[in-house]
Write a structure and sequence with these properties.
The protein has 151 residues and is α+β, with helices and mostly antiparallel strands. It is built from 5 helices and 8 strands.
Length: 151
């Protein structure tokens, strides 16, 4: 994938959609492209967060540790952004993310991520929206489980 193709990929992600193409080119250039094989972990729950990942190709699963073993709570695919909670909140990883197929990502370091949201407040607003939607979805799932209406 060329740098221009990576810029187009970034533009399809809501939190990056309003950023000027030259700035996205800088983000794409400064990011590291990584490939993970199926069953390989991007990161593990409890690890310190040092980067976030944008999925370019493939799928991954989000797992949380429970007393009964790992529980899959989400599936990720193309254009999904993962790992930002740990770097925003400066907390250990809240889940494990594992490739379910061959997975290609752009790895955005914590420093680069914070430079981007400092330079582009619109990106910070979009991140808040994404996190708020995730929280709403999780709250709904918890509500369904607690009332026994989950499938």
């Amino acid at each position: 994938m060329s740098l221009n193709e990576e810029v187009e990929l970034l533009r399809r992600i809501p939190m990056f959609a309003k950023i000027d193409p030259p700035k996205l080119k800088l983000l794409a250039f400064a990011s590291e492209r990584l490939t993970f094989e199926a069953d390989q972990e991007l990161f593990r729950q409890g690890d310190m967060a040092d980067a976030a990942y944008i999925i370019i190709d493939g799928t991954a699963e989000v797992l949380i540790d429970t007393p009964r073993g790992p529980l899959q709570v989400a599936t990720l695919g193309i254009n999904d952004f993962v790992g930002e909670i740990g770097i925003i909140c400066d907390v250990p990883r809240t889940a494990t993310v594992r490739a379910t197929t061959r997975l290609t990502t752009l790895r955005i370091t914590k420093d680069l991520f914070f430079r981007m949201i400092t330079d582009f407040p619109a990106m910070a607003v979009e991140i808040m929206r994404v996190l708020a939607h995730r929280l709403e979805h999780t709250t709904q799932q918890l509500r369904e489980v607690s009332t026994g209406s989950a499938p």
